[in-house]
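Appendix B, Record 12. Input sequence as logged:
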Amino acid sequence: MTIENAHKKPWEILSQYLDDGDIEQAKKCVSDKSSDELTSLISHLSNDNRKSLLTLLTPRDAVELIEEIPHVQAAQIIEDLKTDEAAAIIDEMRSDDQADFLTEFADKQAEAILSEMTPEKAENVRKLIEYPAHTAGGLMITEFLSFEVTNTVREVADQLQENAEKYERYNVQYIYVTSNDKFIGVLRLRDLLLTRPDITLSHIVIRNALTVQDTTSTEELIRFFNTNDFYGVPVIKEEDELVGVVLRKHVLAEEADL
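Logged structural output:
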């Protein structure tokens, strides 16, 4: 810290860096801060500087910052951004967070943001926001690993390596096995690693795994996770189509709000 900044408040220093467009110093001001510290810091910024902070960061860094501040505060900041800036940030979010933010915006603004997003992600979010909030469909994420029952262990391993950058943000505990999108079962990563490369998933998949319907209510999900000590549970819709995964931590968060 310079002598000039020694007697300034943290948000005054950050504001000055933002006014100057000094992204590196601005990033240092928000790095290693706790959630409470970030909330306080950002709450003291002007609306223009809040927007500047998000747009100066890379979209992925902006998402990491947003995850540390209250949802309401984050939504207000994103809502004030230009459409393409908001889309770039929302494009980097988890699917459930994308749906949560867009349902809070006016229909016209939400559609404008969707039109700027990656087409595949936009189509996915449109499906998610159709679900009632307090259902498995409304709580699920769509970032999960799914492979065809006819794939070999070698094919799965190759795909995991080829898409390592994409999958590094997934909370991978299980691989889900399907047949033409129909849920077949789950596969533990350790079983994948300890199986001969030429073996197909049909020989090692755990069949009859527990699932929930996309219409399952939050109350039913709470009872499910109180009974089953699972990290997450696959979500299926009619004809056993695999559409997402509900994570235990998200259900517990909902329980805390009830």
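The beta strands are 146-148, 174-179, 182-188, 206-207, 212-213, 232-237, 241-247.
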